[in-house]
Amino acid sequence: MPALNNFLRTFREKVNKKYPNRKKTSDGTLGDQAHKSRVSEHNPDGDGTIDAWDMDCNLLGSSNDTGSAAEDAEVRKVIAEFLKQPQAQLVIYNKHIHNVDIDEPGEWRWYGDWSSGKNPHDHHAHLQSKQSREDITYKGNLDGVVNAQPKPATGELSRGDTGERVKALQRGLRKVFPLYSGDLEVDGQYGLRTEKAVAQFQKRSGLKVDGVVGGITRAALAKHGIKL
Fold this sequence. Notes:
Layout: E1 3-4, H1 6-18, H2 33-36, E2 49-50, E3 52-56, H3 69-84, E4 88-93, E5 96-99, E6 107-110, E7 124-129, E8 151-152, H4 164-176, H5 178-181, H6 192-204, H7 215-222
Parallel strand pairs: 1-2, 6-8
Antiparallel strand pairs: 3-7, 4-5, 4-7, 5-6
Pfam families: PG_binding_1
Protein name: Putative peptidoglycan binding domain-containing protein
Region (Disordered): 18-50
């Protein structure tokens, strides 16, 4: 029976130990039919092991399918620790990707057009290891990780982001568009309600509706006095 390689197996064990109540609904190792029909690290490699693990975002066991803001912070902590390891190859999370062979530290690229059916990876984080280092056991300690808060290099805002720019967005939407954003909480957490408010703004402005504040949406918001 195919199983995770040694590095991912031991890394997952540490995650399970640190988050004993985490949900595993969106956990994934062995590829499904869709994965089996193409080249994927979820399929067994030459030695019969699997080099990718999908980690459910509900690390604290909340009822939210995509995890709470607090859980998002925990997911980012785990990702930061994962990427410190020489065995790490890439991570896909919340519509963004980081490949250690291509991207600068802290750089996150937009991961394709998720609205067309591509998995946005907002229910789980895809953690992939290097095949050449897959036998090296993870010996780190997740208790000591620091929240690196990875951000996309483009400066866009999307679900999972936090901070003052998110607050400015929420505050501006509440003030300028109270009809559909009047009850939006200004908490600095880009969650589902903020994403929906942005999507509504995009729809009413004739823009591409994806709930993400990219360059075009940011420029449109600026015309209404919402500067990010």
